[in-house]
Specification:
This protein has helices spanning 3-18, 86-97, 103-108; strands at 28-34, 40-48, 55-63, 68-69, 75-78, 112-116, 128-131, 144-153, 165-174, 179-186, 197-208, 216-226, 231-241. It is mostly beta strands. Strands 1, 2, 3, 4 and 5 form a 5-stranded antiparallel sheet that branches. Strand 11 and strand 12 form a beta hairpin. InterPro entries: DUF2259_secreted. It comes from Nitratireductor mangrovi.
């Protein structure tokens, strides 16, 4: 056996051994944008469910000022058909969403992706993001910082024997003074839609500055929860105005 062939065989064996037999799924995040008056923020998560292999697509429409879902939303599509495709699920979610606000309006008011820390990012601080609200250099706006803290919570019945579960709080911080400014969210309980959350990390911040009115922002948070084959990641958002 040649040295090249031997090395190739060793590499193949090493790769085969190192690949895990199973894994959870990390939902892809797509930020859709804001309504023209920046009162609604929309995003989508989608992927293939671990265990079943079924495609899913979930669309969320959030009242920015109230930090609550627009009535009748979110839209959650799970196609329990082995022949269904991911695009089939996304198409159904997309069609449902047009009754709330057209994708064309969202695309025209997408705003600025002011920060992005994907789940695969290892060097980022999962509990802190500091941003300039607009891509203007030198900045003309005050910098903004968000800090995320995990809160140990009593495990709901559905999460018994799965290990500790957590809620979270999200604060806005005065970046210059390093002092608390505003509590944007704090869990009092864990909603059923969140499953059995084992942890959280800041994932993205989207901002928009309409021609009239204050900034609107959305902080996207990745939720790690107990999945069928491993930890799953899904997305939630906290919204507000500056």
């Amino acid at each position: 056996m040649s040295l090249r062939l031997a090395a190739s065989c060793l590499l193949t064996t090493a790769v085969t051994v190192s690949v895990p037999a199973s894994a959870g799924d990390i939902a892809e995040l797509e930020i859709l944008g804001f309504s023209q008056d920046a009162s609604i923020f929309a995003f989508e998560e989608y992927g293939v469910q671990d265990g079943s292999g079924f495609p899913y697509a979930n669309r969320f429409y959030v009242d920015v000022e109230g930090d609550s879902f627009v009535p009748g939303t979110p839209f959650r599509i799970l196609l329990q058909d082995e022949n269904a495709t991911l695009e089939d699920a996304r198409s159904q979610a997309r069609t449902a969403g047009q009754a709330v606000i057209a994708d064309t309006e969202l695309a025209q008011n997408r705003g600025t992706l002011a920060a992005l820390n994907p789940v695969t990012e290892l060097s980022a601080d999962p509990g802190r993001i500091a941003i300039n609200p607009r891509p203007v250099i030198p900045p003309v706006d005050a910098a903004i910082e968000f800090r995320l803290e995990e809160i140990p919570m009593p495990a709901p019945d559905r999460c018994k024997d799965l290990g500790p579960v957590f809620g979270y709080r999200l604060n806005r911080i005065d970046l210059e003074a390093g002092e608390f400014v505003l509590r944007l969210h704090q869990d009092e309980s864990i909603p059923q839609s969140r499953g059995c959350p084992q942890g959280y990390r800041l994932g993205a911040v989207q901002t928009v500055h309409p021609q009239s009115g204050p900034y609107s922002f959305a902080v996207l948070i990745a939720v790690r929860s107990f999945g069928f084959e491993g930890p799953d990641y899904r997305w939630i958002a906290v919204t507000g105005r500056l």
